[in-house]
Design goal:
The protein has ten helices and five strands, in the order βαβαβαβαβαααααα. By secondary structure, the protein is an alpha/beta fold. The protein has two domains: about 140 residues, 3-Layer(aba) Sandwich (Rossmann fold); about 55 residues, Orthogonal Bundle (Arc Repressor Mutant, subunit A), CATH 1.10.10. The chain has a five-stranded parallel sheet, sandwiched between helices.
Length: about 220
């Protein structure tokens, strides 16, 4: 089954580039290409995509508003930010809103298509420069006193079981077969786990769960 992709980009040149990258991949399906956040929200309800490819600098609203809307109303949809903004403020705001991938616009067509596949498979594609920023922030955070207060969010037995299977390296399709649920349901559970643990990738989720004694 093809991965459905919705593009939200207001610059015609980049919209063409991203659209062509999706159309050139036989495993991807372009459900729409729009230039505003409002149009994206309307299409999300009419033709729910698997992946939303989103620019942050939209003419009618901040792209993070769209990300929050997706996280709240379409949790099975992954958000891949592709933008010119590489500063900490934009990166952190997008990831905290619920984006699971972050690329800069200098990424080539092959990188765009590959990242969509990676994202849909449960990964978190991030431009190297952005990844370096995040790692630097994480290293800085580890030097600060850790908050020892218990987390408010606790994983359900189903989420814990799913995370254990994820820790073993199983794909979402394989996990779905073992648990007799659809891959889309697996993705929805994983997104809930990410939100509860305040993480953005499988590796981070497994690490945090181990630190909390959940695995």
């Amino acid at each position: 089954m093809k991965i459905r992709v919705l593009i939200v980009e207001d610059e015609p040149e980049f919209m063409r580039r991203f659209s062509n990258a999706v159309l050139a991949d036989p495993e991807l399906s372009l459900t729409g290409a729009v230039s505003t956040g409002a149009a994206a929200m309307a299409l999300l309800g009419a033709q729910p995509p698997d992946v939303l490819l989103l620019d942050l600098g939209l003419p009618d609203m901040d792209g993070t508003e769209v990300i929050r809307y997706v996280a709240l109303h379409h949790s099975a949809c992954d958000v891949l930010v592709v933008t010119m903004f590489g500063d900490d403020r934009h990166v952190i705001a997008a990831l905290e809103a619920g984006a699971t991938g972050y690329l800069l616009k200098d990424a080539g067509a092959d990188r765009i298509a590959t990242s969509i596949h990676e994202l849909h498979a449960g990964g978190s594609p991030i431009s190297p420069g952005i990844a370096r920023r995040i790692l630097t922030r994480m290293r800085t955070a580890t030097t600060q006193p850790r908050d020892e207060s218990p987390r408010d969010a606790v994983l359900t037995p189903r989420e814990t079981e799913l995370l254990r299977l994820t820790a073993k390296g199983l794909s979402f399709d394989a996990i779905g077969q073992l648990l007799e649920i659809s891959p889309h349901t697996v993705v929805a559970h994983v997104k809930k786990i990410y939100r509860k643990l305040a993480v953005h990738s499988r590796g981070e989720a497994v690490y945090e769960a181990n630190q909390m004694g959940l695995l």
